[in-house]
Specification:
The longest helix is centred in the middle third of the chain and has 15 residues. Among the domains are: 97 residues; 71 residues. The chain contains 27 helices and no strands. Helix 21 runs antiparallel to helix 22. The chain is an all-alpha fold. Keywords: Repeat.
C-alpha cells in the first residue's frame, strides 16, 4: 500500500505545512519504493522540518527508504544544499538503510558545489569505510567542482592521487579529466597533461578529439588542426567525430568560408559519411553568420539525402531564425516540427520563449510557458530565468515576482542567476519596501546554499543601515557569516 504521501499534491506550500507534517508523523505502514510524487512530497517536508523534528522522523517513521528514493530526494534538494547534506547525514544513521555509491556521489557533488571541501573529503572517507567507493565518477565530480571553483591545480592533484583512495586510474578517467579541463577553458593545462601522460594511458581518438575540441572552444582552430596531425602521426585514424569537431571549430571561430570548404571536403571523402551532427553544425554556423537562406538550403539538402533532422537540428535552426531573422518565421518552423511528429524539448521551448521575450511579446512568451506544461515538457530554471530577466528589463518587477512565486511553489527551483537578477531589479526600481524584499531574497539564497557576491551583501547592508533597519541588517550579517571567512 502506498503511503499517504502518495496523495499529496503540493501547490500551496504555506497552507499545507501543518497537514503535511501531520501525515509524516502518522505513517505506520511499510510502503514500497515511492514514486516521483512521494520524492517531491518528502523533499518538501524535509525543507520545512527543523533539525530535531527531521531527526525524529527519519529514525522513527516507516518510510521504505531505497537508494532510488534517496537519489530523487537529493535531486529535489539540489538548490537547498545545506538541507540536502543534513538529510543525507541523518539518514546515514538509519538502522535499516545504507547509502549507495550514487547517493554518496550526489551528496559529494552538492557539498563541492557549496565549496565545503571538508565535507567532501569526509564523505569520500565514509564511502571508502563502507566499501561503496570512491569510484571514477566520484573523482570526476570532485575535479570538475574544483576546476569550476577556479582551483585547476588542486583538481590535477586530486586526479593524480586517485590510487591513494583505492580507485584505479584508466583511460576513461584520464579522458574524463581532460574533458573537464577543456570545457572549463583550461585547454593549455589539459594539453600539457595530455603530452605527459598520453603514453601511460595509451591515448585514443577520444583523447585527441577532446583536446582538439578544447582548442576549438577557444576559437583556436589552427591548434586543433595541429592536434589532428599529431593524432595521425601517432597511428590513429580520425573519426567522423574528429571531423565534426574541426568543422564546428571553424564556424565557432566565425571562419564561415573555411568551414564551408572543410564541409565540401568531407563530402568528397567517400569514407567520411556525414551525419545529422555534421549538418546541424553547418545549419547553425550559417545561421549565426546571418546567412539564413544558405542555412535553409543545407537543412533541405540533409532531408533530401535521407538524413533526418534531430530535435537538436530544429533547435539550432529555430535559434538562428530568432536571432538573425524573425521570431514569427521561427514559430513557423516550430509548427512544422510538430506536424512532422517531432516532440519539442525544453531547449526548443526556451529558444522560442527567449525569441518572443526579445521582441517584447511577453504575453505570448507566457502562453508558450503554459503550452510547454500542457505538452508535459517541464520548464527548467533557464525557462523561468529568461522570462524573469526580460520582465525586469521592462520594469515589470511585480510580474517577475509572480513568475518567481511559481518557481517557489514547486514548479522549478531558482538558481543563483534568478536571485541576482531579482535583487538587482529591486535596487533599480527603488520603490518603498524593495530593499526589504531584496534582503529576504538574499537570506533565502544563502539558506539554499548559494554564495552571493560580496557586492550584493554590501549593497543591501548599506541600504538597510541608511534606512534605519538595523535589526534586519543583523540578519544579513548572520547570513554573510555563514558564507565563510572570505565574506566576513
Amino acid at each position: 500500500m502506498l503511503s499517504p504521501l502518495h496523495k499529496l499534491h503540493i501547490r500551496n506550500p504555506t497552507s499545507l505545512v501543518c497537514s503535511v507534517k501531520l501525515s509524516f508523523y502518522n505513517l505506520t505502514t511499510i510502503t514500497p519504493p515511492a514514486a516521483d510524487d512521494d520524492a517531491s512530497s518528502l523533499s518538501f517536508l524535509i525543507l520545512k522540518l527543523d533539525p530535531q523534528a527531521l531527526t525524529h522522523n527519519l529514525e522513527f517513521n516507516s518510510v521504505y527508504w531505497t537508494p532510488d528514493l534517496v537519489n530523487k530526494i537529493l535531486k529535489h534538494l539540489w538548490n537547498h544544499g545545506p538541507k540536502a547534506i543534513q538529510f543525507f547525514n541523518l539518514l546515514e544513521r538509519h538502522p535499516t538503510y545504507t547509502h549507495s555509491a550514487a547517493s554518496f556521489d550526489h551528496a559529494i557533488d552538492i557539498a563541492a558545489r557549496l565549496r565545503n571541501y571538508k565535507t567532501v573529503w569526509a564523505l569520500v572517507a565514509r564511502m571508502r569505510k563502507r566499501r561503496v567507493g570512491p569510484n571514477p565518477k566520484t573523482f570526476a565530480i570532485i575535479t570538475e567542482r574544483y576546476v569550476s571553483a577556479g582551483k585547476p591545480d588542486k583538481a590535477v592533484r586530486v586526479f593524480l592521487s586517485m590510487q591513494e583512495y583505492g580507485c584505479q586510474q584508466d583511460l576513461n578517467s584520464f579522458n574524463t579529466f581532460l574533458d573537464v579541463l577543456c570545457k572549463s577553458r583550461r585547454v593549455e593545462m589539459a594539453y600539457n597533461l595530455f603530452k605527459v601522460l598520453k603514453r601511460r594511458f595509451r591515448a585514443d581518438t577520444i583523447s585527441y578529439n577532446i583536446i582538439a575540441n578544447g582548442f576549438c572552444l577557444l576559437k583556436r582552430t589552427p591548434r586543433a588542426l595541429e592536434v589532428l596531425r599529431e593524432m595521425v602521426e601517432s597511428g590513429l585514424e580520425p573519426t567522423l567525430k574528429t571531423y565534426n569537431v574541426i568543422l564546428n571549430g571553424y564556424f565557432k571561430a566565425g571562419q564561415v568560408k573555411e568551414g564551408w570548404q572543410f564541409f565540401l571536403e568531407m563530402k568528397r571523402r567517400r569514407r567520411c559519411e556525414m551525419d545529422v551532427v555534421t549538418y546541424t553544425t553547418v545549419v547553425h554556423g550559417f545561421g549565426v553568420a546571418g546567412e539564413i537562406q544558405k542555412a535553409r538550403q543545407v537543412f533541405d539538402e540533409m532531408i533530401g539525402l535521407g538524413i533526418l533532422p534531430s530535435v537538436a537540428t530544429y533547435n539550432a535552426y529555430i535559434q538562428v531564425l530568432c536571432k538573425k531573422d524573425n521570431v514569427e518565421n521561427a514559430i513557423l518552423v516550430f509548427e512544422e516540427m510538430l506536424k512532422k511528429g517531432y516532440t519539442p524539448n525544453a531547449t526548443t521551448y526556451n529558444v522560442v520563449i527567449r525569441g518572443l521575450c526579445h521582441v517584447g511579446k511577453m504575453d505570448r512568451a507566457m502562453e508558450y510557458l503554459d503550452k510547454m506544461k500542457d505538452d508535459e515538457c517541464d520548464p527548467n530554471v533557464q525557462t523561468y530565468n529568461v522570462i524573469i530577466r526580460y520582465y525586469c528589463d521592462e520594469g515589470e518587477i511585480d510580474k517577475s515576482l509572480k513568475v518567481f512565486d511559481r518557481m517557489g511553489n514547486g514548479e522549478c527551483l531558482p538558481n543563483l542567476d534568478t536571485y541576482n537578477v531579482l535583487i538587482s531589479a529591486m535596487f533599480g526600481r527603488k520603490r518603498s519596501g524593495d530593499l526589504m524584499v531584496a534582503g529576504k531574497l538574499l537570506i533565502e539564497m544563502v539558506d539554499r546554499g548559494f554564495i552571493p557576491r560580496k557586492f550584493t551583501f554590501n549593497r543591501i547592508l548599506n541600504g538597510l543601515l541608511l534606512t534605519g533597519n538595523q535589526d534586519f541588517a543583523k540578519e544579513i550579517l548572520t547570513a554573510q557569516g555563514r558564507c565563510g571567512s572570505d565574506y566576513c
